[in-house]
Amino acid sequence: MIPRVRLGRTGLEVTRIGLGGFPFGGVNKARNWNPFTPEGRVVAIRTVHAALDAGINYIDTAPSYGDGNSESIIGEALRGRRDSVVLASKVGYRGKSPQDLIASVQASLRRLRTEVIDVVQFHGGMYEPADVEHILGAGLVEALGALRDRGLVRFIGFTTEEPWTGRPLIASGLFDVAQLRYNLIYQSAAEHALNDARSADMGVAVMRPLTSGVLQRIAMYLAPEWQQAHDIYDVALKYLLSDSRVHVANLGLRWPEEVARNVAVATSFQPPFDMAELPRMTAHIYRTEDEMSGHA
After folding, report:
1. Separation of first and last alpha carbons in the chain
2. Quick one: DSSP state of residue 36?
């Protein structure tokens, strides 16, 4: 069984890995992946069903993933199974009014074929000060709060590619969930945002958990033997499963066999160490190395 944890102050119990919906909105010709074709849509729905059957209970998507295609696929796949899933989607914010956000959520509800979205997140990359001011001061958070009061949204969050730029949103106390870019090669969240979120008892999801193929592409050129010695994707997932500050890693899985492989890792892996305690400064590395070798 996939381990479950409490998603911060939401109180929701979520599996340590979730299903990320981006692949259902994008084409990958090199791997013959096209969820916009009837055949591709059938495969995508099979993948969602494989995730549910394997016990995954967190699904994350966005209206911008294929102009609603991802939400539409997930909505169809969840018919009769909606109650078993924590469902997260997103809204834009740049140039958006409170009315725009309300319309966006209503459209997502229709595509997802649901009466409520568990987590609605501001869909961000890097938050400039003007972005933070607009979100917090132009009625955008209040608009989502109004939808929450109407029972259309349960919790409010945000996503960010550059975690340090989300710190003002964490500090505002207005958000229940933060989805951060954090993985084996993108480490900045480990220094600040993850600790901030834990202190605020926020739920923490991770985007790009397997590095979106970046680490694997680097290794292909610089250390091809790594792929033969052990699978880098598994190592990347185990890294996140070893960090107690991370509640759910959203994996962009396309085929049922990818689901099975990652579920096997999440089910069987026992973290030997909490990555939250990993020293990240040279002096601390030296000190702990001395302690481990008995020379402290």
Report:
1. 41
2. T
By residue count, the chain amounts to 296
Q: Return the SS3 of 1.
A: coil
Average pLDDT by consecutive 10-residue portion of the chain (296 residues)? 97 98 96 97 98 98 98 98 97 98 98 98 97 98 98 98 98 98 96 97 97 91 79 94 98 96 97 92 73 73
Structure tokens at 115: 């009466």
CB 1: neighbour CB atoms within 10 A? 9
CATH superfamily for 4-293 is: NADP-dependent oxidoreductase domain (3.20.20.100)
Residue 174 identity = L
**How many of the other CB atoms lie within 10 Å of CB of 177?**
26
Measuring CA to CA, how many Å separate 189 from each of 62, 70, 166, 194?
Answer: 22, 27, 10, 6
227 alpha carbon, distance to own chain's centre: 25
